[in-house]
Amino acid sequence: MKEFELNDIVETKKTHPCGSNKWEIIRMGADIKIRCTGCDRIVMIPRSKFEKSVKKVLKNEEK
User: pTM for the complete prediction?
Assistant: First the structure.
């Protein structure tokens, strides 16, 4: 299981239609809500699907 926290930026395997593959985690639970950093689209997906689609976690510098 990959380690990620609220407000982390994650890079996904596939790119979003806007061209970006970086997402910010804005809600965590059984489902995870993420926001595209390119176009600000918000998507909610199940945790299992999210964990499979994450390539790497880019930690937020604010911590």
Answer: 0.84
